[in-house]
Amino acid sequence: MSKLPYRSLRTLAKTYGPLMMVKLGSIPYVIVSSADAIQELTDKDHDVIFSGRPQWKSSDALFGGSTDIIFSSYGEYWRQMKKICMVEVLSQRRVNQFRYIREQEVEHLVGMLKDASKNKTAVDLSEAISTLTNTVISRAAFGKTYNNQQMSLRRAVDILAQFCFQDSFPILGWVDALTGFDSKVRKVSREVNDFLDTVIDDHKKRVVVVAEDDSHDGSDHVERQADIVDILLRVQKERELEFNFTDANIKATLLDMFAGGTDTIATTLEWVMSELVRHPTIMKKAQEEVRRIVLMGSERKSGIDEADISRMEYLKCVVKETLRLHAPAPVSLRKTSEDVKLGGFDIPEGTMVMINLWAVMRDPEIWEQPESFVPERFLAEPLDFKGQTGKFVPFGAGRRLCPGMTLALVEVELVAANLLCWFDWELPEGVVDLDMSEINSVVIRRETPLSLVPVLNSE
Ligand code: HEM
Protein backbone atom coordinates (compact mmCIF):
# COMPACT_ATOMS: atom_id res chain seq x y z
CA MET A 1 0.00 0.00 0.00
CA SER A 2 1.44 3.40 -0.99
CA LYS A 3 1.37 6.57 1.12
CA LEU A 4 -1.75 7.52 -0.84
CA PRO A 5 -3.96 4.47 -0.03
CA TYR A 6 -6.99 5.71 -2.00
CA ARG A 7 -4.80 5.42 -5.14
CA SER A 8 -3.49 1.92 -4.32
CA LEU A 9 -7.01 0.76 -3.45
CA ARG A 10 -8.31 1.98 -6.80
CA THR A 11 -5.60 -0.03 -8.55
CA LEU A 12 -6.66 -3.13 -6.60
CA ALA A 13 -10.34 -2.49 -7.36
CA LYS A 14 -9.55 -2.54 -11.09
CA THR A 15 -8.59 -6.20 -10.64
CA TYR A 16 -10.88 -7.33 -7.82
CA GLY A 17 -13.99 -5.24 -8.44
CA PRO A 18 -15.97 -2.47 -6.73
CA LEU A 19 -16.52 -4.49 -3.56
CA MET A 20 -13.47 -6.17 -2.09
CA MET A 21 -12.19 -7.25 1.28
CA VAL A 22 -8.71 -5.93 2.12
CA LYS A 23 -6.79 -6.27 5.36
CA LEU A 24 -5.46 -2.90 6.52
CA GLY A 25 -3.00 -3.88 9.20
CA SER A 26 -4.71 -6.88 10.74
CA ILE A 27 -8.21 -5.48 10.32
CA PRO A 28 -10.42 -6.58 7.40
CA TYR A 29 -12.13 -3.72 5.56
CA VAL A 30 -14.78 -3.86 2.85
CA ILE A 31 -13.64 -1.37 0.22
CA VAL A 32 -16.41 0.23 -1.80
CA SER A 33 -15.36 1.76 -5.15
CA SER A 34 -18.41 2.25 -7.36
CA ALA A 35 -21.31 4.69 -7.61
CA ASP A 36 -23.79 1.80 -7.75
CA ALA A 37 -22.47 0.34 -4.50
CA ILE A 38 -22.65 3.78 -2.81
CA GLN A 39 -26.24 4.14 -3.95
CA GLU A 40 -27.10 0.71 -2.56
CA LEU A 41 -25.24 1.39 0.68
CA THR A 42 -27.22 4.61 1.24
CA ASP A 43 -30.66 3.35 0.16
CA LYS A 44 -33.43 3.04 2.72
CA ASP A 45 -32.64 -0.59 3.51
CA HIS A 46 -28.91 -0.07 4.07
CA ASP A 47 -28.23 3.53 5.18
CA VAL A 48 -28.72 3.00 8.92
CA ILE A 49 -26.76 -0.26 8.95
CA PHE A 50 -23.78 1.37 7.22
CA SER A 51 -23.85 4.54 9.34
CA GLY A 52 -21.56 3.40 12.14
CA ARG A 53 -18.00 4.74 12.39
CA PRO A 54 -14.80 3.09 13.55
CA GLN A 55 -13.37 4.72 16.67
CA TRP A 56 -9.66 5.34 17.01
CA LYS A 57 -7.39 5.53 20.02
CA SER A 58 -6.78 9.22 19.29
CA SER A 59 -10.47 10.04 18.72
CA ASP A 60 -11.33 8.34 22.02
CA ALA A 61 -8.72 10.39 23.87
CA LEU A 62 -9.40 13.71 22.18
CA PHE A 63 -13.18 13.55 22.01
CA GLY A 64 -13.88 12.05 25.45
CA GLY A 65 -14.63 8.52 24.16
CA SER A 66 -15.39 9.64 20.56
CA THR A 67 -18.44 11.63 21.68
CA ASP A 68 -18.21 14.16 18.88
CA ILE A 69 -20.20 13.99 15.63
CA ILE A 70 -17.50 12.77 13.25
CA PHE A 71 -16.47 9.74 15.33
CA SER A 72 -19.50 8.83 17.41
CA SER A 73 -21.27 5.55 16.76
CA TYR A 74 -24.59 5.70 15.00
CA GLY A 75 -27.51 6.01 17.41
CA GLU A 76 -29.70 8.43 19.32
CA TYR A 77 -26.73 10.31 20.81
CA TRP A 78 -25.18 10.94 17.35
CA ARG A 79 -28.63 11.94 15.99
CA GLN A 80 -29.08 14.58 18.71
CA MET A 81 -25.52 15.90 18.33
CA LYS A 82 -25.84 16.14 14.55
CA LYS A 83 -29.18 17.91 14.87
CA ILE A 84 -27.65 20.52 17.18
CA CYS A 85 -24.82 20.93 14.72
CA MET A 86 -27.10 21.33 11.70
CA VAL A 87 -29.83 23.45 13.29
CA GLU A 88 -27.77 25.61 15.64
CA VAL A 89 -24.24 25.80 14.28
CA LEU A 90 -24.07 25.14 10.52
CA SER A 91 -27.56 26.12 9.30
CA GLN A 92 -28.03 28.63 6.46
CA ARG A 93 -29.01 31.21 9.10
CA ARG A 94 -25.68 30.74 10.91
CA VAL A 95 -23.74 30.78 7.66
CA ASN A 96 -25.37 34.16 6.94
CA GLN A 97 -24.74 35.35 10.49
CA PHE A 98 -20.98 34.89 10.08
CA ARG A 99 -20.84 36.46 6.61
CA TYR A 100 -19.28 39.68 7.94
CA ILE A 101 -16.32 37.66 9.31
CA ARG A 102 -15.66 36.05 5.93
CA GLU A 103 -15.94 39.38 4.15
CA GLN A 104 -13.57 41.13 6.56
CA GLU A 105 -10.96 38.38 6.40
CA VAL A 106 -11.15 38.21 2.59
CA GLU A 107 -10.68 41.99 2.44
CA HIS A 108 -7.61 41.56 4.62
CA LEU A 109 -6.23 38.86 2.31
CA VAL A 110 -6.85 40.97 -0.80
CA GLY A 111 -5.09 43.93 0.86
CA MET A 112 -2.08 41.77 1.67
CA LEU A 113 -1.96 40.44 -1.91
CA LYS A 114 -2.26 43.96 -3.36
CA ASP A 115 0.77 45.01 -1.32
CA ALA A 116 2.67 41.90 -2.43
CA SER A 117 1.80 42.55 -6.07
CA LYS A 118 3.73 45.83 -5.95
CA ASN A 119 6.98 43.88 -5.58
CA LYS A 120 6.08 41.36 -8.29
CA THR A 121 7.32 38.56 -6.05
CA ALA A 122 5.75 35.20 -5.29
CA VAL A 123 3.54 34.79 -2.23
CA ASP A 124 2.97 31.58 -0.30
CA LEU A 125 -0.71 31.31 -1.16
CA SER A 126 -1.05 28.08 0.84
CA GLU A 127 0.02 29.88 4.01
CA ALA A 128 -2.17 32.93 3.31
CA ILE A 129 -5.25 30.77 2.66
CA SER A 130 -4.60 28.62 5.71
CA THR A 131 -4.36 31.71 7.92
CA LEU A 132 -7.65 32.96 6.51
CA THR A 133 -9.59 29.72 7.03
CA ASN A 134 -8.25 29.39 10.57
CA THR A 135 -9.08 32.97 11.47
CA VAL A 136 -12.59 32.73 10.03
CA ILE A 137 -13.46 29.59 12.02
CA SER A 138 -11.81 30.94 15.20
CA ARG A 139 -13.73 34.19 15.07
CA ALA A 140 -16.98 32.36 14.33
CA ALA A 141 -16.40 29.78 17.07
CA PHE A 142 -14.74 31.84 19.82
CA GLY A 143 -15.37 35.47 18.83
CA LYS A 144 -11.63 36.02 18.39
CA THR A 145 -8.37 34.21 17.68
CA TYR A 146 -6.30 32.85 20.53
CA ASN A 147 -3.00 32.69 18.61
CA ASN A 148 -0.61 30.51 20.66
CA GLN A 149 -3.06 28.50 22.76
CA GLN A 150 -4.99 27.66 19.63
CA MET A 151 -2.02 25.68 18.36
CA SER A 152 -3.20 22.82 20.57
CA LEU A 153 -6.21 22.44 18.23
CA ARG A 154 -3.83 22.15 15.28
CA ARG A 155 -1.81 19.49 17.11
CA ALA A 156 -5.01 17.60 17.95
CA VAL A 157 -6.17 17.55 14.34
CA ASP A 158 -2.70 16.42 13.20
CA ILE A 159 -2.71 13.53 15.68
CA LEU A 160 -5.87 12.14 14.09
CA ALA A 161 -3.84 11.52 10.93
CA GLN A 162 -0.95 9.75 12.65
CA PHE A 163 -0.31 6.04 12.46
CA CYS A 164 -1.31 4.15 15.60
CA PHE A 165 -0.52 0.48 16.13
CA GLN A 166 -3.61 -0.27 18.16
CA ASP A 167 -5.96 0.95 15.42
CA SER A 168 -4.31 -1.19 12.74
CA PHE A 169 -2.90 -4.13 14.77
CA PRO A 170 -4.90 -4.27 18.04
CA ILE A 171 -2.63 -7.02 19.38
CA LEU A 172 0.33 -4.61 19.10
CA GLY A 173 -1.41 -1.75 20.92
CA TRP A 174 1.34 -1.74 23.54
CA VAL A 175 3.86 -0.57 20.90
CA ASP A 176 2.17 2.86 20.95
CA ALA A 177 3.65 3.41 24.40
CA LEU A 178 7.13 2.70 23.03
CA THR A 179 6.77 4.95 19.96
CA GLY A 180 5.67 7.85 22.17
CA PHE A 181 2.23 7.95 20.51
CA ASP A 182 0.35 7.35 23.79
CA SER A 183 2.10 10.10 25.73
CA LYS A 184 1.73 12.52 22.83
CA VAL A 185 -2.02 11.86 22.61
CA ARG A 186 -2.37 12.33 26.38
CA LYS A 187 -0.41 15.59 26.30
CA VAL A 188 -2.31 17.08 23.36
CA SER A 189 -5.62 15.95 24.81
CA ARG A 190 -4.80 17.74 28.09
CA GLU A 191 -3.74 20.91 26.24
CA VAL A 192 -6.90 20.99 24.11
CA ASN A 193 -9.14 20.39 27.11
CA ASP A 194 -7.44 23.10 29.15
CA PHE A 195 -7.67 25.54 26.25
CA LEU A 196 -11.33 24.86 25.49
CA ASP A 197 -12.20 24.98 29.23
CA THR A 198 -10.69 28.46 29.36
CA VAL A 199 -12.66 29.55 26.29
CA ILE A 200 -15.93 28.20 27.73
CA ASP A 201 -15.29 29.77 31.15
CA ASP A 202 -14.53 33.13 29.50
CA HIS A 203 -17.84 32.96 27.70
CA LYS A 204 -19.78 31.92 30.81
CA LYS A 205 -18.42 34.89 32.72
CA ARG A 206 -19.42 37.48 30.13
CA VAL A 207 -22.89 38.91 30.71
CA VAL A 208 -23.51 40.95 27.58
CA VAL A 209 -26.23 41.26 25.02
CA VAL A 210 -25.54 38.98 22.10
CA ALA A 211 -27.25 38.90 18.73
CA GLU A 212 -27.89 35.64 16.91
CA ASP A 213 -28.71 36.91 13.47
CA ASP A 214 -26.98 38.50 10.53
CA SER A 215 -27.64 42.07 11.74
CA HIS A 216 -23.96 42.47 12.51
CA ASP A 217 -22.18 44.39 9.80
CA GLY A 218 -18.88 44.62 11.64
CA SER A 219 -19.88 47.84 13.44
CA ASP A 220 -20.83 48.00 17.12
CA HIS A 221 -24.58 48.46 16.91
CA VAL A 222 -25.13 45.27 18.87
CA GLU A 223 -23.06 44.81 21.99
CA ARG A 224 -21.60 41.59 20.77
CA GLN A 225 -22.40 39.13 18.03
CA ALA A 226 -23.01 35.63 19.40
CA ASP A 227 -20.30 33.17 18.50
CA ILE A 228 -20.60 29.37 18.34
CA VAL A 229 -19.59 28.95 22.00
CA ASP A 230 -22.38 31.38 23.06
CA ILE A 231 -24.83 29.46 20.90
CA LEU A 232 -23.84 26.08 22.34
CA LEU A 233 -24.04 27.45 25.89
CA ARG A 234 -27.53 28.73 25.15
CA VAL A 235 -28.46 25.27 23.81
CA GLN A 236 -27.09 23.73 27.01
CA LYS A 237 -29.28 26.04 29.08
CA GLU A 238 -32.48 26.15 27.11
CA ARG A 239 -32.94 23.30 24.75
CA GLU A 240 -34.87 20.25 25.82
CA LEU A 241 -32.59 17.39 24.89
CA GLU A 242 -32.78 13.69 25.49
CA PHE A 243 -29.31 13.75 27.01
CA ASN A 244 -27.36 16.03 29.26
CA PHE A 245 -25.46 18.39 26.91
CA THR A 246 -22.35 18.94 28.98
CA ASP A 247 -19.28 21.13 28.56
CA ALA A 248 -17.51 18.00 27.27
CA ASN A 249 -20.07 17.77 24.44
CA ILE A 250 -19.51 21.45 23.65
CA LYS A 251 -15.76 20.84 23.49
CA ALA A 252 -16.21 17.84 21.18
CA THR A 253 -18.46 19.90 18.88
CA LEU A 254 -15.92 22.73 18.77
CA LEU A 255 -13.07 20.37 17.99
CA ASP A 256 -15.14 18.90 15.13
CA MET A 257 -15.60 22.39 13.69
CA PHE A 258 -11.82 22.76 13.58
CA ALA A 259 -11.12 19.22 12.40
CA GLY A 260 -13.81 19.43 9.70
CA GLY A 261 -13.78 23.07 8.83
CA THR A 262 -10.26 24.43 8.34
CA ASP A 263 -7.95 22.20 6.30
CA THR A 264 -10.78 20.99 4.06
CA ILE A 265 -11.60 24.52 2.93
CA ALA A 266 -7.96 25.60 2.66
CA THR A 267 -6.92 22.60 0.59
CA THR A 268 -9.90 23.01 -1.76
CA LEU A 269 -8.80 26.58 -2.45
CA GLU A 270 -5.20 25.53 -3.00
CA TRP A 271 -6.31 22.96 -5.61
CA VAL A 272 -8.71 25.43 -7.27
CA MET A 273 -5.84 27.85 -7.82
CA SER A 274 -3.40 25.09 -8.80
CA GLU A 275 -5.74 23.71 -11.47
CA LEU A 276 -6.53 27.18 -12.81
CA VAL A 277 -2.87 28.12 -13.12
CA ARG A 278 -2.27 24.89 -15.05
CA HIS A 279 -5.26 25.63 -17.32
CA PRO A 280 -4.95 29.27 -18.43
CA THR A 281 -7.97 29.11 -20.76
CA ILE A 282 -10.20 27.94 -17.94
CA MET A 283 -8.67 30.56 -15.62
CA LYS A 284 -9.47 33.26 -18.18
CA LYS A 285 -13.05 32.05 -18.62
CA ALA A 286 -13.61 32.05 -14.86
CA GLN A 287 -12.01 35.50 -14.50
CA GLU A 288 -14.16 36.90 -17.30
CA GLU A 289 -17.30 35.68 -15.58
CA VAL A 290 -16.32 37.04 -12.18
CA ARG A 291 -15.17 40.39 -13.60
CA ARG A 292 -18.27 40.76 -15.77
CA ILE A 293 -20.51 40.34 -12.73
CA VAL A 294 -18.47 42.49 -10.34
CA LEU A 295 -16.84 45.14 -12.48
CA MET A 296 -19.13 45.67 -15.43
CA GLY A 297 -22.54 46.02 -13.84
CA SER A 298 -24.38 49.35 -13.75
CA GLU A 299 -22.42 50.29 -10.66
CA ARG A 300 -18.82 49.07 -10.51
CA LYS A 301 -18.20 47.50 -7.13
CA SER A 302 -15.20 47.60 -4.84
CA GLY A 303 -16.08 44.31 -3.14
CA ILE A 304 -17.80 41.05 -3.99
CA ASP A 305 -20.87 39.99 -2.07
CA GLU A 306 -22.50 36.61 -1.81
CA ALA A 307 -25.39 37.74 -4.07
CA ASP A 308 -22.82 38.27 -6.86
CA ILE A 309 -21.45 34.80 -6.24
CA SER A 310 -24.86 33.18 -6.67
CA ARG A 311 -24.67 34.34 -10.34
CA MET A 312 -21.20 32.88 -10.97
CA GLU A 313 -22.28 29.67 -12.62
CA TYR A 314 -18.92 28.82 -14.19
CA LEU A 315 -16.98 29.49 -10.99
CA LYS A 316 -19.27 27.02 -9.21
CA CYS A 317 -18.43 24.43 -11.88
CA VAL A 318 -14.71 25.10 -11.33
CA VAL A 319 -15.17 24.41 -7.60
CA LYS A 320 -17.15 21.22 -8.30
CA GLU A 321 -14.54 19.96 -10.76
CA THR A 322 -11.80 20.67 -8.22
CA LEU A 323 -13.67 18.72 -5.54
CA ARG A 324 -14.18 15.86 -8.00
CA LEU A 325 -10.47 15.52 -8.73
CA HIS A 326 -9.13 16.55 -5.33
CA ALA A 327 -11.61 15.38 -2.70
CA PRO A 328 -10.08 16.72 0.54
CA ALA A 329 -11.43 13.69 2.43
CA PRO A 330 -10.86 10.93 -0.15
CA VAL A 331 -12.45 8.12 1.84
CA SER A 332 -15.41 7.78 4.20
CA LEU A 333 -15.02 5.27 7.00
CA ARG A 334 -18.05 3.34 8.24
CA LYS A 335 -18.88 0.32 10.36
CA THR A 336 -21.86 -2.02 9.96
CA SER A 337 -24.28 -2.33 12.87
CA GLU A 338 -25.80 -5.69 11.83
CA ASP A 339 -25.35 -8.50 9.31
CA VAL A 340 -26.22 -7.19 5.87
CA LYS A 341 -26.03 -7.97 2.13
CA LEU A 342 -24.31 -5.57 -0.27
CA GLY A 343 -23.91 -6.24 -4.00
CA GLY A 344 -24.90 -9.83 -3.29
CA PHE A 345 -22.14 -10.34 -0.66
CA ASP A 346 -22.80 -11.15 3.00
CA ILE A 347 -21.19 -8.62 5.31
CA PRO A 348 -21.17 -9.41 9.02
CA GLU A 349 -22.07 -6.99 11.83
CA GLY A 350 -19.15 -4.85 13.02
CA THR A 351 -17.31 -4.88 9.66
CA MET A 352 -15.18 -1.85 8.84
CA VAL A 353 -16.13 -0.24 5.55
CA MET A 354 -14.08 2.21 3.51
CA ILE A 355 -15.86 4.10 0.75
CA ASN A 356 -13.28 5.25 -1.78
CA LEU A 357 -14.94 8.55 -2.75
CA TRP A 358 -11.83 9.58 -4.66
CA ALA A 359 -11.89 6.48 -6.89
CA VAL A 360 -15.60 6.84 -7.68
CA MET A 361 -15.11 10.45 -8.73
CA ARG A 362 -12.43 9.36 -11.25
CA ASP A 363 -14.19 6.21 -12.44
CA PRO A 364 -13.91 5.96 -16.27
CA GLU A 365 -17.17 3.99 -16.34
CA ILE A 366 -19.11 7.08 -15.24
CA TRP A 367 -16.95 10.10 -16.12
CA GLU A 368 -15.67 11.09 -19.56
CA GLN A 369 -11.95 12.01 -19.49
CA PRO A 370 -11.97 11.28 -15.74
CA GLU A 371 -8.41 12.49 -15.12
CA SER A 372 -8.86 15.83 -16.95
CA PHE A 373 -9.93 19.13 -15.42
CA VAL A 374 -13.12 19.98 -17.34
CA PRO A 375 -15.49 22.26 -15.34
CA GLU A 376 -17.90 22.36 -18.33
CA ARG A 377 -19.01 18.80 -17.51
CA PHE A 378 -21.02 20.28 -14.62
CA LEU A 379 -22.74 22.79 -16.92
CA ALA A 380 -23.99 19.85 -18.94
CA GLU A 381 -24.90 17.78 -15.86
CA PRO A 382 -25.55 19.97 -12.83
CA LEU A 383 -25.03 17.38 -10.08
CA ASP A 384 -25.57 18.64 -6.53
CA PHE A 385 -23.44 17.90 -3.46
CA LYS A 386 -25.84 15.56 -1.67
CA GLY A 387 -24.33 12.44 -3.15
CA GLN A 388 -27.66 10.80 -4.03
CA THR A 389 -26.42 9.52 -7.40
CA GLY A 390 -23.43 7.93 -5.63
CA LYS A 391 -21.33 9.49 -8.37
CA PHE A 392 -20.35 12.98 -7.21
CA VAL A 393 -19.59 12.52 -3.51
CA PRO A 394 -16.96 15.00 -2.17
CA PHE A 395 -19.05 15.48 1.01
CA GLY A 396 -19.93 11.79 1.36
CA ALA A 397 -23.46 10.42 1.14
CA GLY A 398 -26.37 9.20 3.25
CA ARG A 399 -26.97 9.99 6.90
CA ARG A 400 -23.33 10.70 7.60
CA LEU A 401 -23.19 13.36 4.86
CA CYS A 402 -21.01 16.33 5.81
CA PRO A 403 -23.06 18.98 7.66
CA GLY A 404 -20.51 21.71 6.83
CA MET A 405 -20.99 21.81 3.07
CA THR A 406 -22.96 25.09 2.89
CA LEU A 407 -20.41 26.86 5.03
CA ALA A 408 -17.51 25.36 3.09
CA LEU A 409 -18.88 26.26 -0.32
CA VAL A 410 -19.67 29.91 0.45
CA GLU A 411 -16.18 30.39 1.83
CA VAL A 412 -14.42 28.63 -1.07
CA GLU A 413 -16.45 30.54 -3.66
CA LEU A 414 -15.99 33.92 -1.98
CA VAL A 415 -12.22 33.57 -1.65
CA ALA A 416 -11.82 32.13 -5.17
CA ALA A 417 -13.95 34.91 -6.71
CA ASN A 418 -11.78 37.54 -5.02
CA LEU A 419 -8.52 35.93 -6.11
CA LEU A 420 -9.79 35.83 -9.69
CA CYS A 421 -11.39 39.25 -9.79
CA TRP A 422 -8.60 41.44 -8.47
CA PHE A 423 -5.54 39.53 -9.70
CA ASP A 424 -3.96 37.68 -12.57
CA TRP A 425 -1.70 34.86 -11.44
CA GLU A 426 1.74 33.84 -12.67
CA LEU A 427 4.20 31.10 -11.80
CA PRO A 428 7.35 32.29 -10.01
CA GLU A 429 10.35 32.97 -12.22
CA GLY A 430 12.06 29.78 -13.34
CA VAL A 431 9.05 27.54 -12.63
CA VAL A 432 7.72 26.05 -15.85
CA ASP A 433 5.14 23.58 -14.58
CA LEU A 434 3.37 23.37 -11.25
CA ASP A 435 4.15 20.33 -9.11
CA MET A 436 0.78 18.66 -8.38
CA SER A 437 2.03 15.96 -5.97
CA GLU A 438 -0.31 15.11 -3.10
CA ILE A 439 0.38 14.35 0.52
CA ASN A 440 -2.00 12.41 2.74
CA SER A 441 -2.43 14.06 6.15
CA VAL A 442 -5.79 14.84 7.75
CA VAL A 443 -6.83 15.90 4.26
CA ILE A 444 -5.19 15.48 0.86
CA ARG A 445 -3.01 18.53 0.41
CA ARG A 446 -0.42 19.74 -2.05
CA GLU A 447 2.95 18.28 -1.13
CA THR A 448 4.66 21.61 -1.77
CA PRO A 449 3.16 24.97 -0.80
CA LEU A 450 1.49 26.87 -3.62
CA SER A 451 3.71 29.77 -4.49
CA LEU A 452 2.33 32.23 -7.08
CA VAL A 453 2.90 35.82 -8.20
CA PRO A 454 -0.19 38.05 -7.92
CA VAL A 455 -0.47 40.71 -10.64
CA LEU A 456 -3.02 43.41 -9.93
CA ASN A 457 -5.87 43.41 -12.43
CA SER A 458 -5.73 46.73 -14.25
CA GLU A 459 -9.23 46.52 -15.85
C1 HEM B 1 -14.62 21.38 1.27
C2 HEM B 1 -14.93 21.17 2.53
C3 HEM B 1 -15.36 19.87 3.13
C4 HEM B 1 -15.33 18.60 2.60
C5 HEM B 1 -14.88 18.17 1.22
C6 HEM B 1 -15.86 17.71 3.63
C7 HEM B 1 -16.01 16.35 3.46
C8 HEM B 1 -16.57 15.51 4.41
C9 HEM B 1 -16.76 14.09 4.23
C10 HEM B 1 -16.36 13.27 3.00
C11 HEM B 1 -17.33 13.61 5.37
C12 HEM B 1 -17.72 12.14 5.65
C13 HEM B 1 -19.12 11.90 5.10
C14 HEM B 1 -19.50 10.45 5.05
O1 HEM B 1 -19.06 9.66 5.89
O2 HEM B 1 -20.29 10.08 4.16
C15 HEM B 1 -17.50 14.73 6.27
C16 HEM B 1 -18.07 14.63 7.53
C17 HEM B 1 -18.17 15.69 8.41
N1 HEM B 1 -17.80 17.00 8.16
FE1 HEM B 1 -17.10 17.75 6.42
N2 HEM B 1 -16.18 18.45 4.74
C18 HEM B 1 -15.91 19.77 4.47
C19 HEM B 1 -16.12 20.85 5.31
C20 HEM B 1 -16.63 20.77 6.59
C21 HEM B 1 -16.87 21.90 7.45
C22 HEM B 1 -16.67 23.35 7.05
C23 HEM B 1 -17.33 21.41 8.64
C24 HEM B 1 -17.72 22.13 9.89
C25 HEM B 1 -17.39 23.35 10.20
C26 HEM B 1 -17.41 19.96 8.50
C27 HEM B 1 -17.83 19.09 9.49
C28 HEM B 1 -18.05 17.74 9.31
C29 HEM B 1 -18.60 16.86 10.33
C30 HEM B 1 -19.03 17.27 11.75
C31 HEM B 1 -18.69 15.59 9.75
C32 HEM B 1 -19.22 14.31 10.40
C33 HEM B 1 -20.67 14.04 10.00
C34 HEM B 1 -21.22 12.74 10.57
O3 HEM B 1 -20.44 11.86 10.90
O4 HEM B 1 -22.44 12.64 10.69
N3 HEM B 1 -16.97 19.61 7.25
N4 HEM B 1 -17.04 15.86 5.67
From TrEMBL:
UniProt entry tagged with the keyword Mitochondrion: no
Keywords: Heme, Iron, Metal-binding, Monooxygenase, Oxidoreductase
Gene3D superfamilies given in the database record: Cytochrome P450
Pfam families assigned: p450
Key word Flavoprotein present: no
Cofactor: heme
Family annotation (InterPro entries): Cyt_P450, Cyt_P450_CS, Cyt_P450_E_grp-I, Cyt_P450_sf
Residue ranges of the TM segments: none
Record GO terms (molecular function): heme binding; iron ion binding; monooxygenase activity; oxidoreductase activity, acting on paired donors, with incorporation or reduction of molecular oxygen
Positions of heme binding: C402
Family listed: Belongs to the cytochrome P450 family.
Entry protein name: Cytochrome P450
Organism field: Linum tenue
